[in-house]
Amino acid sequence: QRLYRYGRFLGIPSDPSRTPSEFAGLLSHAIESSAKGENHTEHINALRADLSYLTGLYNLQLFSEHLLLEEEKKNVLQVWKQFRHNLKQVRFLSASKRKPVRIPFWS
Questions:
Q1: Choosing a second label site near 3 at 20 to 30 A (CA), which of 30, 58, 71, 77?
Q2: Nearest to 49 by CA among 57, 37, 38, 39
């Protein structure tokens, strides 16, 4: 749900017919667009990988009977922290060269 909040903030309208993977693609594009013209390749690639991992687990939870193991739960929290860190880096580096883009950081 936190990723959906980021999406709404970045202008991605809510659409119940959109799959999690479609939403992740739109979110990835929105994040890249917000860093347009900047050299954030390392952070953008990390964001894509984290987003892919989180979306994959979300799909697994949504469409199967698979229950997350304790190790998977811990890993999700770590990936979420990495995702937020890289998003902050993109925001910080972009802000250093132009007007800051405010992105909320929900815990």
A1: 71
A2: 57
Contact 5, 103 (CB under 8 A): no
Residue 12: closest CA among 21, 1, 24, 51 = 24
pLDDT tens-digit readout, 46-99: 999 999 999 999 999 888 998 889 999 999 999 999 999 888 888 755 554 444
CB 11 within 8 A of CB 30: yes
3-state helix vs strand vs coil in the chain, percent to 5? 65, 0, 35
Instruction: Supply 95's token pair.
Output: 């802000």
Amino acid at position 74, single letter? K
Residues in the chain: 107
